[in-house]
Amino acid sequence: MMRALFTASTGMGAQQLNMDTLAHNMSNVNTIGFKKQRVEFQDLLYQTIRRPAADENRNEPVGLAVGLGVRPAAINTLFGQGNLQSTENPLDVAISGTGFFAVQVPGYEEPLYTRDGAIKVDAERQLVTADGYLYLGPEALEEHYTDPRIATDGTISYMLPGETEPTVAGEPLQIFKFSNPAGLQKVGKNLYQATVNSGEAVQWEPDSDNSIALHSEYLEMSNVQVVEEMVNLITAQRAYEFNSKVIQSSDEMLQTAANLRR
């Protein structure tokens, strides 16, 4: 009975973390480029009461072992493609595939990475995120620019007064791939940081790599599916409730044992 109390408590703690993760997913259902997370569990150690035996005196193919509960093993980020939403904004761009835009963030020596393609133009006509972080690759737009466009290879062009040919804003948008995107460290504000587990950033070469595509005037929305998350939420809630019932039942059994001498 005491073992059941502690085992059920591990289940309640695990489902609480599961609920926290589901709440985070649901709260970011409209976040541009957000990737949902999933909690992965493992069973805990087993207490062996009797081991299997096979000798000249006994032949017991199975033993007697009691599990001691569950523990969260990992929270995995699922980088499935989110829905592409048309915006009719020429500076919005969405990535299909596993690429990331590179941005320069103050306080970090290396670039950070994002799936957020809602590009803004600051007072110096630089291409930045909503927080003012510079997208790497393009140069600042010239004064009095009009009709900006983003090509499928990330090249940004625009028109100037009196010109008949578009002007190119320096290099294309720098887009990088990782061998293990789930190993990227989340730093908030739609940003990721490369780690040893993610592998080194490899720059996308549009001429030779068709695994990534850019879509101008579109944004990639969150890949959270509300109905699926609601089902997972109900499952987690019921699992939490079942574990609490086990604790209540164990408590009643302990109370019955304590009243035997009355």
Chain-wise SSE layout:
Blueprint: H1 2-27, E1 37-43, E2 46-50, E3 53-54, E4 59-60, E5 64-67, E6 70-77, E7 84-86, E8 93-96, E9 100-104, E10 112-114, E11 120-121, E12 127-128, E13 134-135, E14 146-150, E15 156-159, E16 167-168, E17 175-177, E18 185-188, E19 191-193, E20 202-203, E21 213-216, E22 218-220, H2 226-258
Please provide a written account of the structure:
The protein is an alpha+beta fold and 262 residues long. The protein folds into two domains: 2-79 and 224-258, no CATH class; 84-220, no CATH class. Helices cover 23% and strands 30% of the residues. It has two helices and 22 strands. It has helices spanning 2-27, 226-258, and strands at residues 37-43, 46-50, 53-54, 59-60, 64-67, 70-77, 84-86, 93-96, 100-104, 112-114, 120-121, 127-128, 134-135, 146-150, 156-159, 167-168, 175-177, 185-188, 191-193, 202-203, 213-216, 218-220. Strands 9, 10, 13, 17, 18, 19 and 20 form a seven-stranded antiparallel sheet that branches. A three-stranded antiparallel sheet has the order 14-15-16, with no helix packed on it. Strands 1-6 form a two-stranded antiparallel sheet. It starts with a helix and ends with a helix. The model has no long low-confidence stretch (mean pLDDT 92).
